[in-house]
Amino acid sequence: PRPRVPAPRAEPGAPMSVAYVLQTLAELRDPDSIVVEEAPSARPVMHRYLPILRSETFYTMCSGGLGYGLPAAVGVALGKPGRKVIGLVGDGSSMYSIQALWSAAQLGLPITFIVLNNRRYAALQEFAPTFGFGGDDPLVGTALPDLDFVSIARGHGCEAARVTHPAALREALATALRTRVPTVVEIEVA
Fold first, then answer.
1. CA–CA separation, 176 and 190 (whole Å)
2. Is residue 8 assigned to a domain?
3. What distance in Å separates the CA atoms of residue 33 and residue 36, rounded to the nearest whole number?
4. Which residues on neighbouring strands pair with residue 160, listed in sequence order?
5. What is the pLDDT of residues 4-37, one digit of tens each?
6. What does pTM read for this prediction?
7. How many Å apart are CA 12 and CA 10, to the nearest integer?
8. Which has the closest alpha carbon to 87: 101, 107, 66, 103?
9. By residue range, what is the domain housing residue 31?
10. What's the structural domain count of the chain?
11. What is the C-alpha to C-alpha distance for residues 20 and 50, in angstroms, rounded to an integer?
12. Which of 14, 59, 102, 150 has the fewest CB atoms within 10 Å, counting from its CB?
């Protein structure tokens, strides 16, 4: 097999790139932590910037089903007691099954949910041409402005933080990854 070519260093910016967020997460997470991913529009970047280092530390889904990520993170945490689970989800994907945050809080599971908030259902927008939409056609219901995942998370019983600037990212992720209670980190990304 060919050796993996390292991705170029992602630089901080405002708003942050998904590459910068995932590069920072890769540097901070424990290699034994388990990533459960549903961030379809970020997946190509994830493959470059969030390497999976050990067997049974990455779970994702087949294409086509939205809403898998949050409840799957709960299920993996239940199936792997004592392991740190990182639920990596997009803002759009998370809204299909946001009530999984309540389950995580009720069960006191050690999950850090990272919501990559780009204020839209990016995967649906990217697939629109496949379904016959033209470049200027309106895509009703795919913009997600003004969602407040910190309030949503706290309303479900989780700890929460929002990161809007790259200078705050490292500390927010490090704190969330150390905690043993369900925590949501909403990160505004480009």
1. 22
2. no
3. 10
4. 184
5. 778 899 999 989 999 999 999 999 999 999 999 9
6. 0.91
7. 7
8. 101
9. 18-188
10. 1
11. 10
12. 14
Taking 70 as the threshold, does the pLDDT of residue 98 lie above it? yes
Least confident among 65-74, 137-146, 155-164, 177-186: 137-146
According to the model, what pLDDT value does residue 132 have? Answer: 85
By CB neighbour count within 10 A (0-12 exposed, 13-18 middle, 19+ buried), where does 141 fall?
exposed
Q: Is residue 74 part of a domain?
A: yes
Specify the pairing of strand 85-90 against strand 34-38.
parallel
Query: How does 84-97 read in b/e, with b if 16+ C-beta sit within 10 Å?
Result: bbbbbbbbbbbbbb
Compute the distance between CA of residue 87 and CA of residue 74 in angstroms, rounded to an integer. Answer: 9
Six-digit token string for 6: 């390292």
Backbone φ and ψ for 85, nearest 5 degrees, come out as -110, 135
Residue 5 belongs to a domain: no
Tell me the CATH number at 78.
3.40.50.970
Mapped to the 3 state alphabet, what secondary structure does the chain carry? CCCCCCCCCCCCCCCECHHHHHHHHHHHCCCCCEEEEECHHHHHHHHHHCCCCCCCCEECCCCCCCCCHHHHHHHHHHHCCCCCEEEEEEHHHHCCCCCHHHHHHHHCCCEEEEEEECCECHHHHHHHHHHCCCCCCCCCCCECCCCCHHHHHHHCCCEEEEECCHHHHHHHHHHHHHCCCCEEEEEEEC
